[in-house]
């Protein structure tokens, strides 16, 4: 009975919408006949965008804002004393510190100094970043409800703590498409930090499309072998044979599309064609032979090592100048529950010089003005020590009530210090920025009204910011 109903439904659509399948196919085969040839299907921008592309430098694990960008010299006098209950309030703690008998205030072991015209305080761990602070906008008042890694990362990347929603990059691809027909509109690059940390999982759903058309999911590049799986033809299959094979598969898919009018079939055809074009475009992209020694040196010694954060930053710039809409970098290793002074130093060395080099590189190529760069993790770290507080060693637990992120380019006002935390760096004191506010602002900079970029699924219109979110106008240029 179910099969009969399905056939009847298909026949109904086929008879009442004759020709739609052909029109859909024509839009793939002759894209010049259609206005939306970028692949975006949500109508393009709602207003003039400031950012044409995004490079998201995601620091997985939760960098310590107290030890990097949110200077609290007053904590030195309170070092080792109990955190007042009035400061903590009713906040729930993770299972890693909820049973601690003492929560001792822990000031940073690192020195801070002010830099640039903005006077931004930056830790000694980030000397290269300190040199470009006047291009950066520091948001020191970020906050989130999530206190564990997976829900916190999922929340920041998809707007919901539970899996099943499209990622920010997928939303951007869905709304805007790509500027390069030969490369994906959304690319993911993953690196592992130098700190000896257990690798927290990064699930593919973090760059997935969920219920959006599947061609908007991120394409993850690998650091060894083919950058994308099965990019090379197997032995015995040349380019002409591959083309003939794809043409035969496309013909079968076209017949199925005409019968069923399933949009995922259209997506499948488009993705096969994209994969064929990537066989030429991706090897050219990932080869650094045309990069000067000066450029490679600017990104640091690891820039020549595939899969490192430095190499991925350089690859991100190459993707940006070729029109990829959304480039997501994940750098693991920031979960410093113990040995923070030594491990945070290693992590900072991984990212400090490449990040500053990326800002300068984009700027000198005229790309920074319309490229939005984002740096930050899923939450911050506690002002109290996790476990035993020692003279030269400590750890910090997860902390969602306040943390720091920085943005650059793409319509953001450089040299801006936005928001403040209290004297304990435990609560937001001024200009709070919620996860939904951040995502609303990112979409705004891309020319998208976050309340209007929606997709109907299971009877409800979904959006990245759910039912919340306000554009943070104080950081806009």
General description of the model:
The protein has 477 residues and is α/β, with parallel strands linked by helices. It has two domains: 1-34 and 238-299, no CATH class; 47-224 and 306-475, Alkaline Phosphatase, subunit A, CATH 3.40.720. The chain is 33% helix and 16% strand. The chain has 13 helices and 17 strands. It has helices at residues 2-16, 20-29, 65-68, 85-88, 127-130, 149-158, 168-176, 239-260, 263-286, 293-299, 309-321, 340-364, 435-445; strands at residues 53-59, 112-115, 120-123, 136-143, 186-192, 219-221, 326-332, 371-376, 380-385, 396-399, 403-408, 416-418, 420-421, 428-430, 433-434, 455-457, 460-462. Strands 1, 4, 5, 6, 7, 8, 11, 12 and 15 form a nine-stranded mixed beta sheet that branches. Strand 2 and strand 3 form a beta hairpin. The protein is globular, with a radius of gyration of 24 Å.
Topology:
Blueprint: H1 2-16, H2 20-29, E1 53-59, H3 65-68, H4 85-88, E2 112-115, E3 120-123, H5 127-130, E4 136-143, H6 149-158, H7 168-176, E5 186-192, E6 219-221, H8 239-260, H9 263-286, H10 293-299, H11 309-321, E7 326-332, H12 340-364, E8 371-376, E9 380-385, E10 396-399, E11 403-408, E12 416-418, E13 420-421, E14 428-430, E15 433-434, H13 435-445, E16 455-457, E17 460-462
Parallel strand pairs: 1-7, 1-8, 4-12, 4-15, 5-6, 5-7
Antiparallel strand pairs: 2-3, 4-11, 8-11, 9-10, 13-14, 16-17
Helix pairs in contact: 2-8, 8-9, 11-12
């Amino acid at each position: 009975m179910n099969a009969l109903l399905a056939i009847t439904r298909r026949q109904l659509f086929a008879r009442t919408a004759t020709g739609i399948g052909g029109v859909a196919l024509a839009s793939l085969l002759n894209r010049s006949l259609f206005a939306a040839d970028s692949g975006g299907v949500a109508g393009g921008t709602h207003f003039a965008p400031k950012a044409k592309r995004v490079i998201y430098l995601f620091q997985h694990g939760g960098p310590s804002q107290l030890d990097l960008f949110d200077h609290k010299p007053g904590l030195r006098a309170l070092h080792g004393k109990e955190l007042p209950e009035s400061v903590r309030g009713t906040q729930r703690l993770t299972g890693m510190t909820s049973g601690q008998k003492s929560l001792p205030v822990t000031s940073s072991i690192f020195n801070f100094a002010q830099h640039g015209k903005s006077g931004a305080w930056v830790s000694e761990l980030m000397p290269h970043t300190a040199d470009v602070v006047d291009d950066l906008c520091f948001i020191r008042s970020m906050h989130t409800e999530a206190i564990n890694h997976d829900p916190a990362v999922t929340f920041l990347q998809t707007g919901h703590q539970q899996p099943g929603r499209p990622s920010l990059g997928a939303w951007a691809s869905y709304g805007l498409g790509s500027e390069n027909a030969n490369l994906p509109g959304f690319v993911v690059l993953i690196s592992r930090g130098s700190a000896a940390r257990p690798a927290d999982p990064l699930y593919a759903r973090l760059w997935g499309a969920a219920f959006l058309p599947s061609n908007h999911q991120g394409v993850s590049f690998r650091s060894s072998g083919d950058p994308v799986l099965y990019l090379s033809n197997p032995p015995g299959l040349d380019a002409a044979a591959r083309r003939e094979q794809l043409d035969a598969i496309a013909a079968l898919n076209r017949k199925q599309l005409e019968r069923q009018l399933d949009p995922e079939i259209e997506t499948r055809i488009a993705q096969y064609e994209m994969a064929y074009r990537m066989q030429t475009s991706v090897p050219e992209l990932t080869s650094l032979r045309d990069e000067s020694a000066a450029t490679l040196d600017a990104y640091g010694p690891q820039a020549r090592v595939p899969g490192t954060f430095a190499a991925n930053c350089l690859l991100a710039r190459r993707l940006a100048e070729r029109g990829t809409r959304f480039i997501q970098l994940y750098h693991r290793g920031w979960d410093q529950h113990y040995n923070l002074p030594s491990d945070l130093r290693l992590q900072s060395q991984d990212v400090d010089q490449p990040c500053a080099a990326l800002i300068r590189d984009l700027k000198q190529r005229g790309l920074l003005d319309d490229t939005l760069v984002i740096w930050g993790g899923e939450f911050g770290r506690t002002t109290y020590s996790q476990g035993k507080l020692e003279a030269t060693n400590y750890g910090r637990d997860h902390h969602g009530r306040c943390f720091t992120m920085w943005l650059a380019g793409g319509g953001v006002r450089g040299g801006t210090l936005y928001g403040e935390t209290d004297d304990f760096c435990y609560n937001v004191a001024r200009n709070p920025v919620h996860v939904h506010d951040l995502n609303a602002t990112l979409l705004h900079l891309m020319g998208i009204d976050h309340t209007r970029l929606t997709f109907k699924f299971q009877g409800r219109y979904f959006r990245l910011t759910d039912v919340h979110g306000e554009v943070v106008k104080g950081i806009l240029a």
